[in-house]
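Ticket #4471: structure export looks truncated?
Reporter: QA, pipeline team
Priority: medium

Steps to reproduce: submit the single chain below to the structure queue and open the exported record.
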Amino acid sequence: MLSFKSPDLRRWITPEPLNVAPQLIGLALATPARRAMAMTVDMAVVGLLSGVSGFWLLGGLVAVVLQLRSQRGTATGTRVVVGWLVAGLFGLLVLQEARDQWDQRAHRAAVSANVAGPAPAAQAAASGVAVAAASAAGSTAPLLSDAERIEQLEEQLAHARQPKTQRWGERLGGWIDEIGLGLGWGTVYFSLLPALWGGQTVGKKLLRLRVVEITGKPMTVMRCLKRYGGYAAGVATGGIGFAQLLWDPNRQALHDKAAQTVVIDLRAPRLLPPP
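Actual output as written to the record:
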């Protein structure tokens, strides 16, 4: 019995990757302004996620790796539910991080106010307590006068206001940590969420936009990861890769070309009826 091995089509040019799905022809493309607004929202979300614990980042990267071989990028059924759960988890992490940053700012403001000097009543109470403690202990150390205490407080305040100097190694390490967290969360956010959420991120969901593959295939984690990798190429070209959508016939930026995707506007009507 003869058996034939299917040929590896990646060795020849095939028409499928070069064709546009008929159901996509006539759909309205997203304008550069709306795409920029959606990206601004997404970058704000990723920026807040960068401060979240590395445990969640590790879990997200593991989920991305597990989904890389999956080609079932459909936006129906279970994956839609999972997509909403992932989006909800991102929302909770962002809100928690925003609250933590707010608490830290409030704490720093309170510390600055305390360093500036306590209220007169508090100074008097502190002075009375100090005098009582010195008397009870029988200390023979001379008590400071008001002028000397004020001079000490001024010296402490001046020292606290001095900028904290860091070594270049410490600064470089801090920058590398921040960039690494940002890239890690960007990988999780821009590859996992669109694949599970039907080609949408938080920004695109709010702006009613969607990323679709030009041959009509569903969005997968691998394709979303390719599209995210195209962002690096856009940065490497000095931003020209992003500006390419201004003159491209299908408004494809460099990362869209890399992943064979387009961004459509769900609010605008079709130019042609669906086939």
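Status: closed, not a bug. The export was complete when the record was re-opened. Leaving a note from the reviewer for reference: Strands lie at 209-213, 261-265.
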